[in-house]
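Structure tokens please, single chain.
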Amino acid sequence: MGKRLRQALDRRGYEDIAWYSTPGGEGFVLFTHIEQIHTDGTPFSGSRRFLPEVTREYRGLSDFLQALFMAPPGRFRVIALVVTAEELQFSDETLSRSEATTLLRGPRRLASSVAQRPLTSDHQVYALIYEFTKRRSEPEGQFVRDSELTGFQHLQAAGLLRAMREAGP
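Here you go.
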């Protein structure tokens, strides 16, 4: 499944991906870099999609926030794809600075011990979309809790649904 997701992401221009195993080790999560999007969820084209100051590797949370601070006004998103046999659990807790720093640095490939595990019928794929807006009058981007677009619409506009079908089984 990781290879199929990687192929689909490559087809749609998502080249710089951070990979993590899930806490229980039964699956994995991948994160795309911040991309600038139009109001309909389609990504900007060319060099405006992944801005230079946004695509660089982050040394920590402050680098990430600085990249969002330096970004022009607009809409941005990060897509997280979770493949797991475990039930997703959400909380209102925030990450510590060290946890966030580790997350944003992210490994650029999935650990072989995780990649070699077989998928079962219990595994599911979840897409989590993190959308941000930045206005001229605001010094930093704001997380969009209730997007005008559904997760399905984001994935469709990004071209990932079609790319997944084309990547095959």
